[in-house]
Amino acid sequence: MIKQCKINISLISPGVLVEKYHYGPYSHYWWQPLPNSEEITTYFPIRVKQTIKATLNNCEFIITVVVSNKDNNIFLLGYMCQCNEIVGIANDPINAISENDENIVNKLNKDVPFTSHSFLLEKIKVFVYGMGYSTNIDWHCAGLEYKSSLLHKFGDK
User: Fold this and answer.
1) Backbone angles phi, psi at 27, to 5 degrees
2) Number of folded domains that form the chain
3) Range of the domain at 88
4) Considering the entire predicted model, what is its pTM?
5) Cα-flanking dihedrals φ and ψ of residue 10, to 5°?
6) How many CB atoms lie within 10 A of CB 36?
């Protein structure tokens, strides 16, 4: 039987939302799905300079979200991990550093002007990261600034 080890996770800094990353064309990389989302998936933001401390086997790991990943893509997030004197940048911090702690997720969702959602439209995933509003009753208060990405797997890619 595989023994699972306990990882203690705490939020050091919630970081900041940056409009061009969280509400721009690459925004679906900057949000993580909440556990237990139903048909319409709700997300929480992974913020720039968000810092988390994870303790594993009595070693403290400090993980900070940075702009630009290991491949130097300036639109994607990276994770700077430090343990003692060792520092490195990774593209994935072992499957989202905070999704298991509801308290951390609640802090990250604080002061978020729009929470991203996604849903499937047949085989196309629609990721909605912005929605305008107006006072026009004839439009049911809808605005002109609807922002979304359409995601589709081609083959197995």
Assistant:
1) -60, -30
2) 1
3) 8-151
4) 0.63
5) -140, 145
6) 6
